[in-house]
Amino acid sequence: MLAKRIIPCLDIKDGRTVKGVNFVDLRDAGDPVELAEIYSKEGADELVFLDISATEQKRKTLADLVFRVAEKVNIPFTVGGGISSVEDVDVLLQNGADKVSINSSAVKNPQLINDLVAKFGSQCIVVAIDAKQIDGEWIVHLVGGKVPTDRKLFEWAKEVEDRGAGEILFTSMDNDGTKDGFANEALAKLSTELNIPIIASGGAGNKQHFTDTFVNGKADAALAASVFHFKEIGIQELKEELKENGIPVRI
Amino acid sequence: MFSRFGLKSIKMKIVIINYGAGNIQSIKFAIKRLGFDAVLTNDVEEIKNADKVIFPGVGEASSAMSKLRDSGLDNLIPNLKQPVLGICLGMQLMCHSSEEGNTKGLGIFDVDVIKFSSKVKVPQIGWNQITNLKSTLFKGIEENEHIYLVHSFYAPLCNETIAECSYEVDYSAALQKDNFYGTQFHPEKSSDVGQRILENFLKM
């Protein structure tokens, strides 16, 4: 049976992990490669690297990082953050990324999704969508959720699927950082209306939240950052609990 | 890890067929983690003379097949005598045909690749289990181990099936005929299980 995936997300700036991490056994807490190896050993199913740097050397630094991660890690990983062209994606995939995630650039230029899918295939194109509710309506936001657009979540998600994206990474800005659980109602609607995998993001605070998002949110995968980085939840124990709750996981 | 199987001392030439179809860096790194170097090449002589041949592939079937034809590899591959491992699209192209782009394949495996229906999410992305393991390719691998897959098309069960997977239907997770092996999953991305499968292949 296809397992539900657990995906730690690492924020990267200038080739280093940004958020403080609480791994005592790390030689270098800022080294994404070392952290990636640890997550991989602990049973993470996939990794996401989100590059938030804005320097001119960004592209090269990120490509170097991707190369170093691919060298060491034997599970799939996705790279996102500021990717806006076919060339950007080409460099990252050539260096060993399995998938890339695009967000703002897809909203600004939806044709980019088609172009990437035509060149690289659906399987490696993830579209990330950040949204929050305004007057009861889920509205797509840009720039890490700061800037509202005129797009509605479910319409945009359908368009993203129609344009050929292989997966959607949905982050609820209403839930992100709250540790109160994922936006399961919206997730379930996405998962039911669309026929591509949906990754839940934003709101993970405890193990039960993961069970809830797989059962109630019908998510195919769940992504979180701080609960893993600060060791509030261990991936192994999380998977044991999911298994006890009857959710298919890889242990 | 590799010294456990005594592989590192064996000198062998491994080639990865490079025909411009997708990410091959990962498979190169996976082989390196096992203590070997692999050469990326589309040179017919170099491929013929290799001890092991890996035939990767990511992307769309008809365009990948036309790239193979452009470099004359479509005639070479089915005639290779050494162990050949097709991965993902590589495996699909080794089949009789693919529904994707209505593509005629290399015809090594006598099975037609078809698409999952819309009853399930397509592509299938993630970790699924392999069962009914029937080859030395899976030596040391237990039934129901998880492997990583990303695909929209699949090879149905057939005489050449050596591992099964279940998603909408039971289908071929791996195929074998003579010296030809194919895995729908990505051993290079399937953690320690995948590493062992790749190692088994290199030991053949």
Structure description:
- Chain A: Its EC number is 4.3.2.10.
- Chain A: GO terms for molecular function: imidazoleglycerol-phosphate synthase activity; lyase activity.
- The complex is a heterodimer of chains A (251) and B (204).
- Chain A has 251 residues and is of the alpha/beta class.
- Chain A contains ten helices and eleven strands.
- Chain A has helices at 32-42, 58-72, 86-94, 104-108, 111-120, 153-162, 184-193, 207-215, 226-229, 235-244; strands at 5-13, 16-17, 47-51, 77-80, 99-102, 125-134, 137-142, 147-152, 167-172, 198-201, 221-224.
- An eight-stranded parallel β-barrel of chain A has the order 1-3-4-5-6-9-10-11, surrounded by seven helices.
- Chain A is globular.
- Chain B is built from six helices and 13 strands.
- Chain B has helices spanning 25-33, 44-48, 61-70, 73-76, 89-93, 191-202, and strands at residues 14-17, 38-41, 52-55, 84-87, 95-98, 103-104, 109-115, 124-130, 145-151, 153-154, 161-167, 169-177, 180-183.
- In chain B, the strands form three sheets. A seven-stranded mixed beta sheet of chain B has the order 2-1-3-4-13-12-11.
- The radius of gyration of chain B is 16 Å and the shape is globular.
- Chain A binds chain B through residues 1-5, 40, 45-46, 67, 70-72, 74-76, 93-98, 120-124, 166-167, 195-197, 220-221, 250, and chain B through 22-23, 25-26, 29-30, 32-33, 58-60, 118, 121-129, 146, 148, 150-152, 166-167, 186, 188-192, 194-195.
Distance between the termini of chain A: 13 Å
Give the biggest sheet of chain B: 7 strands, mixed
Strand order, biggest sheet of chain B? 2-1-3-4-13-12-11
CATH top-level class of chain A: Alpha Beta
Low-confidence stretches of chain B: none
The CATH homologous superfamily of chain B is called: Class I glutamine amidotransferase (GATase) domain
CATH architecture of chain A: Alpha-Beta Barrel
CATH fold field value of chain A: TIM Barrel
Portion of residues in helices of chain A?
25-40%
State Rg of chain A: 17 Å
GO molecular function, one term (chain A): imidazoleglycerol-phosphate synthase activity
Enzyme class (chain A): lyase
Catalytic activity (chain A): 5-[(5-phospho-1-deoxy-D-ribulos-1-ylimino)methylamino]-1-(5-phospho-beta-D-ribosyl)imidazole-4-carboxamide + L-glutamine = D-erythro-1-(imidazol-4-yl)glycerol 3-phosphate + 5-amino-1-(5-phospho-beta-D-ribosyl)imidazole-4-carboxamide + L-glutamate + H(+)
Family (chain A): Belongs to the HisA/HisF family.
